[in-house]
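Following the same procedure, the fold was encoded as tokens, giving this record:
***
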Amino acid sequence: MANDISFFEKVYAVVELIPYGRATSYGAIARFLGSGCSSRMVGWAMNASHQKLHHIPAHRVVNRNGLLTGKNHFGGPDTMRQLLESEGIVVENDQIINFNNVFWDPSKELEL
């Protein structure tokens, strides 16, 4: 990815590649982008993604334990869970069940 692209735009480019029915973490995206300590910044990008003109599947990005920590930024407390469940991901108590089974690691799946 070109250096003149903003960090948020780089995050969005990665998030758009997360396959249907899979999820990743803020930290996995940050590490892939070479900014391992920028998990929070990835979260801020996800919060800002709702203002984009095209759809960014931000619901597929959760914390390292599979918790739906960004759920309050989806217009309703259950929207993020509903979006994940519509893709076949099982969620209980705001946490993805068997997160390791649906975890998508961009560092293993993509090349810079």
In short: The chain has six helices and four strands. The helical segments are 7-15, 26-32, 39-48, 79-86, 99-102, 106-109. Residues 7-107 form a domain with the Arc Repressor Mutant, subunit A fold (CATH 1.10.10.10). The chain has one domain: 7-107.
